[in-house]
Amino acid sequence: VVIQECHVQNTARQYAKLYAAEAEPLEGFGEVPEIIPIFLIHRPANNIPYATVEEELVGEFVKYSVKDGKEVNFLRRDSEAGQKCCTFQHWVYEKTNGNLLVTDLQGVGMKLTDVGIATLAKGYKGFKGNCSFSFIEQFRALHQCNEYCEMLGLKSLRTTHQKQRKATSTKSKNLPNSSTVKKMVPKKAREPRDFISSEH
Quick one: three-class SS letters along the chain? Predict the structure, then answer.
């Protein structure tokens, strides 16, 4: 468990560094959230031989996003750190083509710790996260872009999600209705059982 915890947080940290390299040069973007490193230590003389060590964060500890994205957190929505965390999630989602999402962002100010990562069931480039892949779908449906998303030129997820839903509903509208099917099916095949099997 502790090895996975280190792997997840340090992987998220690498994404945060790439995000910072792209965001910091932008005029007016300002400070970027940082995921602090976590270290695994081996203590052979101890009953629990492995432990993690990280920098102590002093100040008000805030959860900017929860794992599944359902909880409304005003500090996430209204604060600069919260908005930049949301943008970071959107940036990672876009950079990985929707295959990976850094979530459960929490910490003090711009310093974050104990994060989670959701990947699709098959993983992403050999990496599997520690959160359900359903969080990715929930994020895509619930994320609201802010000024930092716009500054980075990120595509609106609402538009993408709405287009996908519209395409699905259009496909279902284009399917032949029962009267059309009946006209094309010979009389002997019109029994309900045959009609159902012809749809599948």
Answer: CHHHHHHHHHHHHHHHHHHHHHHCCCCCCCCCCEECCEEEEECCCCCCCEEEEECCCCCCCEECCCCCCCCCCHHHHHCHHHHHHHHHHHHHHHHCCCCEEEECCEEECCEECCCEEEECCCCECCECCCECCHHHHHHHHHCCCCHHHHHCCCCCHHHHHHHHHHHHHHHHHHCCCHHHHHHHCCHHHHCHHHHHHHHC
